[in-house]
Write a structure and sequence with these properties.
By secondary structure, this protein is α/β, with parallel strands linked by helices. The chain has one domain: Alpha-Beta Barrel (TIM Barrel), CATH 3.20.20. Strands 1-2-3-4-5-6 form a six-stranded parallel β-sheet. Helix 1 crosses helix 3. The longest helix has 21 residues. The chain is globular.
Length: 276
């Protein structure tokens, strides 16, 4: 436990919420005004079962959804593709096109509930299906919230392979980011996820290092596609896995925020763009 006496005559050594270097978050009021975003993952293969579970979760206070597609969809296969025989229905929702997403999200107010995807290497077709659903439901772009979570490096590390060259995956990711920035102000296209490293036994410092290295490569890919640094930085959603050592977890998040602010600044971005 620490008190003001531990820093006599000083202001808060970690800064303040919403102010550079954003160690304590990007919002001045943190979660006080809007509350926490409670995001629940859904991965049951059956669309009807998934829909029932989603509606129950929303009644219970969940505010956004993470839809994990099955192994066939995450590898870009249609269910009738011979290559999908052993993958369909494994480890995720059997959703392959907009009608499937419409069934899984029946009764969900998409202008109020954010939808994010875990689509593996097939982030582009999955994003297209979700956009088609938003348009089918007539949701105004200003009210859409979500994340496409294109994260090719995480897929490569976790699975040991990609169905395309890494350069092609990065180019697709950057194209998606450019389009998303132009069309949906409250949607992110890119994710930096450290789960593969964390679950493989990485220390907190290693986890942060891999995350920052990944973020830099993604930032380079987006700026090479014509995006400004500020816009590209805001297209990245960070996802850090945490253990049960609470104070170490807090330190890990604060260190990651500080490093990201420095990276964006060193890349020529504005101060505000460094808010993770």
């Amino acid at each position: 436990m620490y008190t003001r006496r531990d820093h006599p005559g000083e202001t808060d050594s970690e800064g303040y919420p919403g102010l550079s270097p954003f160690v304590r978050g990007s919002q001045l009021l943190g979660a006080v005004r809007a509350g926490w975003d409670l995001r629940q993952e859904h991965a049951h293969p059956d669309l009807g079962t998934t829909n029932q579970a989603i509606l129950e979760d929303l009644q219970g206070g969940v505010t956004s959804l993470l839809l994990r597609l099955d192994a066939a969809a995450r590898n870009g296969y249609d269910p009738d593709d011979p290559a999908a025989t052993e993958l369909a229905g494994r480890d995720g929702i059997m959703a392959y096109h907009v009608d499937d997403l419409d069934t899984a999200l029946a009764g969900v107010h998409l202008d109020m509930v954010g939808v994010t995807l875990e689509a593996g290497a097939a982030f582009m077709p999955a994003a297209a299906a979700l956009v088609a659903l938003w348009r089918r439901r007539g949701v105004p772009s200003a009210q859409v919230r979500g994340a496409f979570n294109a994260d090719p490096f995480a897929v490569l590390v976790r699975d040991g392979q990609l169905p395309m060259p890494v350069e092609s995956a990065l180019a697709l990711m950057a194209d998606l980011a450019v389009w998303t920035f132009a069309n949906y102000p409250d949607v992110t296209a890119v994710r930096v996820g450290t789960a593969p490293y964390h679950h493989a036994g990485a220390t907190a410092a290693q986890d942060i290092a891999f995350g920052m290295a990944t973020a830099v490569e993604y930032l380079r890919a987006m700026t090479a596609a014509g995006m400004k640094v500020d816009a590209a930085a805001k297209q990245i959603l960070f996802s850090f896995s945490l253990g049960t050592h609470h104070f170490l977890a807090i330190a890990k998040l604060r260190a990651a925020r500080r490093l990201w602010a420095r990276i964006v600044n060193a890349s020529g971005g504005a101060v505000a763009a460094g808010a993770m």
